[in-house]
Automatic annotation (TrEMBL):
Name this protein carries in UniProt: Hydroxypyruvate reductase
Keywords, sorted A to Z: Amino-acid biosynthesis, NAD, Oxidoreductase, Pyruvate
Domain of life: Bacteria
Any one Pfam family match given in the protein's UniProt record, by short name: 2-Hacid_dh
Amino acid sequence: MFKHKVLVPDHNVRAEGLDLLQDNGIELTVLQSYSRPEKVIDSSKDVAAILARVTQINKEVLTASPKLKIVSRHGVGYDNVAIDECTKLGIAVTTTGDANSEAVSEYAFAQLISLARHLTRAANEVKSGIWKRDNIVGFELYQKTLGIIGLGRIGSRLAKHALGFGMEVLAYDPYPNRCAIDEVDVSLVSFEKLLQKSDFISLHTPLNSETRNLIGKTELDLMKPTAFLVNTARGGLIDEKALFYSLHHRKIGGAALDVFEQEPVPEDYSLLKLDNLMCSPHVAGQTSEALVRTSIAAAQNILCVFRGEPPKNLVNPEVLKNSSRTNWKVNF
């Protein structure tokens, strides 16, 4: 049993993970998502762990948390956490690995089908009293080319879905995982070739200094005029001004975005007014099964650190050599 306190700054974490922490004697403080920064800072002062979804865990929060041992991300990305500052302070940062990989890959593939068959438009027209079958002519995914940027857990799962539909799959990954490549029948190609040859392009990379605005005007201009862009990863991967221009001028076929540079998206945002954009509020990983798995994985990472054991999916392994916050049971 532990006597530590844990802050959960985002209220929509499934009970299974929270119960696991409380069953181990941990005291929880749960805030509403998108709480004011000063509320998060004030609530962080006496905690040993933060289990975070969307809340920004920045330098101010970390500085206010002298007992903090771990920031356990509820999800795969960690662009809302000040990684370098955590490492400097000896604070572990973890993600939940592939807990939501199936959910996200299924959602990305669903967007491919919806784009190809104009499902959103068809539903909206029928609800508006319009019944014109000849206006809605889609195309098959069979023998089309899917380009996957980032062949990790989610990208490789998406490849399997696409191959099952008879698609050709191209992939670009600057740091390819040979195991993932060997599991699926994909062709590794250059970034430029993928952009030029693909009928669909799906993004599955983390957001960092190397990948911010990975898709901009130059990249969009390389795409086929009939191609579609899908993003279920992070909004900052796409230059949204450049995307607006390409969609508005019909330079590409369309796009489906589950993530945006700014979330929530402003109501008057220009992208939302385009008829060749499908959008959703960052829900690709939101299945009941994935949310339960993710909450449990995030809680287990916290318990590992409290026991002094290296947690799974540790983003900054350098902290294992720093015992200022945690007495690690690790031999080097």
